[in-house]
Write a structure and sequence with these properties.
The chain is of the alpha+beta class. The protein has helices at residues 42-56, 65-73, 79-88, and strands at residues 30-31, 34-35, 62-63, 92-94, 101-103. A hairpin with a 6-residue loop joins strand 4 (92-94) and strand 5 (101-103). The longest helix is centred in the middle third of the chain and has 15 residues, at 42-56.
């Protein structure tokens, strides 16, 4: 009986010649400029919300609710869910009377 002198083969992708795993960017959530789904995982959703607030809303400008909805509809039909997430995460602030929205300078 002869013993094998070969090293055991690794099953890790980075050892098999595959590319190492890279952090996923927000662009992975879009197809043809549209958001494919709102992420369920909080960290991934936070990435998306930061991206949306930075790309769709100008700092210092007041927006009406229809303006916010129209901006959000450019990427996804469920604008009310995205609007709620943006507010609860602190990316957008809403006036107490609901008359206007603004992009936040800080997030929660």
């Amino acid at each position: 009986m002869s013993e094998s002198t070969e090293a055991p083969q690794s099953t890790r992708p980075e050892d098999q010649g595959a590319e190492p795993r890279r952090p996923r960017g927000v662009h992975d959530l879009f197809s043809h400029g549209r958001l494919t789904a709102i992420p369920r995982k909080a960290a991934r959703r936070e990435q998306l919300l930061a991206h949306l607030s930075e790309t769709l809303f100008v700092p210092g400008r007041a927006y009406t609710e229809p303006e916010v909805n129209d901006a959000l509809r450019t990427v996804h039909e469920d604008c009310s869910a995205l609007r709620r997430y943006l507010i609860t995460s602190g990316h957008l602030t809403r006036a107490r009377d609901g008359s206007s929205y603004r992009r936040s300078t800080t997030t929660r």
